[in-house]
Amino acid sequence: MNKICKQYISEVKSFFPIMGKSEKRYVTKLKANIESYCEDEEITTKEELYEKYGLPNNVVNDYFSAADTEYIVKKIKTSKYIKAFISVILIILIILTSVFCAFWYQNHQMLLREEALFSNEVIEE
């Protein structure tokens, strides 16, 4: 598969807001179809692919217009909840890391102050 076909498929993938099993199957079939077309016709520009298959955003729009609306809504809601959950986990980790660093810094400062109190005095008789 040549570089132009790979770029076209990559552009199509980037327009998918969600990537479930059916979307992956669709992209795999599209990829196989584009690969065979590229080999048969010896494609040299992306414009040739745009003429044959359409712009990447139109390809994705066609897929979603043919898909079940309930499926799409369910997938988008699920991805929304997953993103929110990951965001909450990251925020908690950042807070915990900040608290740990502050605690460590205080202990370090206390250790430095204690070292300043201890001095080596030699008493000679």
From TrEMBL:
<feature type="transmembrane region" description="Helical">
    <location>
        <begin position="84"/>
        <end position="105"/>
    </location>
</feature>
<keyword id="KW-1133">Transmembrane helix</keyword>
<keyword id="KW-0812">Transmembrane</keyword>
<dbReference type="Pfam" id="PF19615">
    <property type="entry name" value="DUF6120"/>
</dbReference>
<keyword id="KW-0472">Membrane</keyword>
<protein>
    <submittedName>
        <fullName>Uncharacterized protein</fullName>
    </submittedName>
</protein>
<dbReference type="InterPro" id="IPR046123">
    <property type="entry name" value="DUF6120"/>
</dbReference>
